[in-house]
From TrEMBL:
One Pfam entry name: Dynamin_M
Protein name: (wild Malaysian banana) hypothetical protein
Annotated PANTHER family: DYNAMIN, PHRAGMOPLASTIN DRP1A
GO cellular component, one term: microtubule
Family the entry assigns: Belongs to the TRAFAC class dynamin-like GTPase superfamily. Dynamin/Fzo/YdjA family.
Domain Dynamin-type G: 31-299
Domain GED span(s) in chain numbering: 517-610
Keyword annotations from UniProtKB, A to Z: Cytoplasm, GTP-binding, Hydrolase, Microtubule, Motor protein, Nucleotide-binding
Taxonomy of the source species: Eukaryota, Viridiplantae, Streptophyta, Embryophyta, Tracheophyta
């Protein structure tokens, strides 16, 4: 069972070390789920004396006004023998055997956090005390509730302290140790008042009555201690602390405990309650109760830790890895991000992501439709054929076939295919460019770094522009090739066709008649349609080879070459992550470390108890 209190002690220390103080934040808090005993009381209620009596040492700052200005997490560890000593979490390698120095260090550490302005802070101080005279117990000493601000403190200090105390004790896992002086009316007790607000049924409140020995003659606290004046679920405990005179004389704590025991045993009003009175009984009872609460909460804490670890890991994964400090690390990080982008881009082209199918649509629908819209038959109308053939013959009419006329008609028809070919190149370019933007949006890592995102996008588009120019040159060359060299075999069939249509020995002037010119137009149209069919297959091949294939192979090659020439500072500018994201990642990593260490602590205790 003692392992359970040590377990919570270790987790609480980890919480403080890694910035989890139970305050409201955008991060999950483990501190709030840990059972803890918060010591609450007004100024001059005897709160410090109760704690010192439990420990058996003078170690808390004393004075007028607000002395406790930060929560003090007091972890007591029972040892079998040896000299008593104390350790602070912020001074892990230093052991304090002089408890006057412990008091001074509490004051100094408070000033380090709050300055000497008498302000308060919710960041706790962790103090561990190892002694044969204590029980295993953890208490959180909170600033004393007050009704007025002292000199040097803001007027808001009264509300600030009350809000801090309430923030601690309103949590369902907090056990409240409410300290009230017996020589004042219980109805005016600050501790009872605030405890009642957060725990109206008294289900997690322990009442401690101090200064019983200072009550007016003829009065006693029996009704309170028996739960008649103010009933709590747990019995009230009365304590008799050292007087100010005893403190001034440095009366030994062990002697003070003996005197307290004798007081309750020898005072007639309290004899029947002696077995549940005194600081020793208070410490043992709180230790036992804390163990029971921790044991009941462990399964829920384990479940919470596992769930939160998963959530933190998922969010860290979404935020991406932190930026490397060295030049090589930065370059590697940029290359890896670009590799992810490049892979996403290829997946679009290869059909694993949508978008690549639009390129096929250009070849299968857009290009054929554009070729069809050229309407070669109108270009080869009777009037245009006569005009072209006549002009090509010049002053000397053709002898057998109007070869120059054929060439001019074919060239003027085929050259118009340049338009659809160029349009197909541009359409594929637009699709490739659109896929760049899609792949960038799908590359989560690029969202971290806006400058890198812009540069990668610009570099990819610039590469596609170069590829478009190369593709345009290659594709238009295919059209120009068809213009520059005609397929001879096609025209070798013409004499046979002429024979079928008439006698080639007819008058030369007869060859300009409608029937003859119509045959020339039909022949040219057949040839141009043959060229169109051929180009309809070869233009896509040229475009895929020059644009799609190159985009898959070398989209960011120029960018990578440029990266290799940049200095570390220039690379750093590319990784200009949003500071808010950097802070969030750091905070999440710390919190994840806390939850993992807590999980390891709980697992080790679970194995030890098997």
């Amino acid at each position: 069972m003692e392992n359970l209190i040590s377990l919570v002690n270790n987790i609480q220390r980890a919480c403080t070390a890694l910035g989890d103080h139970g305050e409201e934040s955008a991060l999950p808090t483990l501190w709030d789920s840990l059972p803890a005993i918060a010591v609450v009381g007004g100024q001059s209620s005897g709160k410090s004396s109760v704690l010192e009596s439990i420990v058996g040492k003078d170690f808390l700052p004393r004075g007028s006004g607000i002395v406790t200005r930060r929560p003090l997490v007091l972890q007591l560890h029972k040892i079998d023998e040896g000299r008593e000593y104390a350790e602070f979490m912020h001074l892990p390698k230093k052991k304090f055997t002089d408890f006057a120095q412990v008091r001074k260090e509490i004051e100094d550490e408070t000033d380090r956090e709050t300055g000497r302005s008498k302000q308060i802070s919710s960041v706790p101080i962790h103090l561990s005390i190892f002694s044969p005279n204590v029980v295993n117990l953890t208490l959180v000493d909170l600033p004393g509730l007050t009704k007025v601000a002292v000199e040097g403190q803001p007027e808001s200090i009264v509300t600030d302290i009350e809000n801090m105390v309430r923030a601690y004790i309103e949590k369902p896992n907090c056990i409240i140790l409410a300290i009230s002086p017996a020589n004042q009316d219980l109805a005016t007790s600050d501790a009872i008042k605030i405890s009642r607000e957060v725990d109206p049924k008294g289900e997690r409140t322990f009442g401690v009555l101090t200064k019983i020995d200072l009550m007016d003659k003829g009065t006693n606290a029996v009704d309170i201690l028996e739960g008649k004046s103010y009933k709590l679920q747990f019995p009230w405990i009365g304590v008799v602390n050292r007087s100010q005179a005893d403190i001034n004389k440095n009366v030994d704590m062990i002697a003070a405990r003996n005197r307290e025991r004798e007081y309750f045993a020898n005072t007639p009003e309290y004899k029947h309650l002696v077995n549940r009175m005194g600081s020793e009984h208070l410490a043992k009872m709180m230790s036992k109760h804390l163990e029971q609460v921790i044991k009941s909460r462990i399964p829920g804490i384990q479940s919470l830790i596992s769930k939160t670890i998963t959530e933190l890991e998922m969010e860290l994964s979404r935020l991406g890895k932190p930026i490397a400090a060295d030049t090589g690390g930065k370059l590697y990080a940029i290359m890896e991000i670009c590799r992810v982008f490049d892979q996403n881009y290829k997946e679009h082209l290869d059909g694993m992501r949508p978008g690549g199918e639009k390129i096929y649509n250009v070849f299968d629908s857009q290009l054929p439709a554009a070729l069809k819209r050229l309407q070669f038959d109108k270009h080869l109308s009777m009037e245009n054929v006569r005009k072209t053939v006549t002009e090509a013959d010049g002053y000397q009419p053709h002898l057998i076939a109007p070869e120059q006329g054929y060439r001019r008609l074919i060239e003027s028809s085929v050259v118009s295919i340049r338009g659809p070919a160029e349009s197909a190149v541009d359409s594929v370019h637009a699709i490739l460019k659109d896929l760049v933007h899609k792949a960038i949006n799908e590359t989560h890592e690029l969202k971290q770094y806006p400058t890198l995102r812009v540069e990668v996008g610009n570099a990819a588009v610039e590469s596609l522009e170069r590829m478009r120019e190369e593709s345009k040159k290659a594709t238009l060359k295919l059209v120009d090739m068809e213009c520059s060299y005609l397929t001879v075999d096609f025209f070798r069939k013409l004499p046979q066709d002429v024979e079928k249509g008439g006698n080639p020995t007819h008058s030369l002037f007869d060859r300009y008649n409608d029937s003859y010119l119509r045959r020339v137009g039909t022949t040219v149209l057949a040839y141009v349609n043959m060229v169109c069919a051929s180009l309809r297959n070869s233009i896509p091949k040229s475009i895929v080879y020059c644009q799609v294939r190159e985009a898959k192979r070398s989209l960011l090659d120029h960018f990578f070459t440029d990266l290799g020439k940049r200095e570390g500072k220039q690379l750093g500018k590319l990784l200009d992550e949003d500071p808010a994201i950097m802070e969030r990642r750091t905070a999440l990593a710390k919190r994840l470390e806390l939850y993992r260490s807590a999980q390891a602590e709980i697992d080790s205790v679970a194995w030890a108890n098997k």
